[in-house]
Amino acid sequence: MNKAFFLDRDGVINHDKAYVVKKEDFEWLPGVFDACKRITDSGYLIVVVTNQSGIGRGYYTEQDFADLTHWMTRELQGKGIPVAGVYYSPYHATEGIGHYKKDSECRKPGPKMILDAANDHNIDVGQSVMIGDNPTDMEAARRAGVGRMVYVGKKPLDDDAGVAVADSLLSAVNKVLDNPATA
Ligand SMILES: [Mg+2]
After folding, report:
1. Strand pairing of 148-151 and 163-165?
2. Rounded to the nearest 5°, which phi and psi values hold at 71?
3. pLDDT grade, residue 180 (50/70/90)?
4. Domains in the chain, start-ordered, CATH in brackets?
5. If you measure from the C-alpha of residue 144 to the centroid of ligand 1, how many angstroms do you get, rounded to a whole number?
6. What is the mean pLDDT of residues 121-125?
């Protein structure tokens, strides 16, 4: 089976400017390419799991998101970093419009994006890692049974059981891969 790093997008890969959808607004965080290269070189898959309620709220379309995702993954690919999958949830329980108004298990803290990715890519979640900047990222990982979690956010965590802390994606990746059993 494969093992993976599940990465949140906004606030982990790029600056979270709220509802980023244009590549001009997509600002890579420092160290992201080095972090992703190390993940790849260590034999893990990279899977992005991102809440995108901006779609459900009508701020942008699924096609807009797909276009940005295509650009983002091509930039990474060009640096020798393949992305196995990008999973997103367009729903929001109260603010979604039409069929996007839904309390979905896809939307983190629901575990479904992670579980779907695991199923699609034959990933052993227990041997995998989640890195996120929102408490809901940690909760989604916990519910999915992800083995290790690293939090790079600012909001206090209600439940920090099993969660390591780092200040960036690169330091999170280094923490995990430098400490195979304990980070
Ligand atoms: Mg985030």
Report:
1. parallel
2. -60, -50
3. confident
4. 4-122+149-157 (3.40.50.1000)
5. 18
6. 98
Q: How far is ligand 1, taken at its centre, from the CA of residue 113, in Å?
A: 15
Instruction: Please say whether the dihedral angle defined by the alpha carbons of residues 28, 31, 37 and 38, taken in this order, is positive or negative.
Output: negative
At residue 145, does pLDDT exceed 70? yes
Q: How far is the CA of 86 from the centre of ligand 1 (A)?
A: 14
Percent of the chain at pLDDT > 70 equals: 98
At 52-84, the pLDDT tens digits run: 999 999 999 999 999 999 999 999 999 999 999
pTM of the model: 0.96
Task: Indicate the pLDDT class of residue 183, thresholds 50, 70 and 90.
Answer: very low
The single residue listed with the structure tokens 């298990």 is 105
Dihedral-angle region of residue 27 (phi above 0 means left; psi in -120 to 50 means alpha; beta otherwise): beta
- Both tokens of 177, joined, read 């891969």
How far, in Å, is the centroid of ligand 1 from the Cα of 108? Answer: 10
Residue 64: active-site member? no
The reply to whether 10 belongs to the active site is yes
Neighbour-count burial of 181, counting CB atoms closer than 10 A to its CB (0-12 exposed, 13-18 middle, 19+ buried)? exposed
Beta strands in the chain (DSSP E): 4-7, 45-51, 85-89, 129-132, 148-151, 163-165
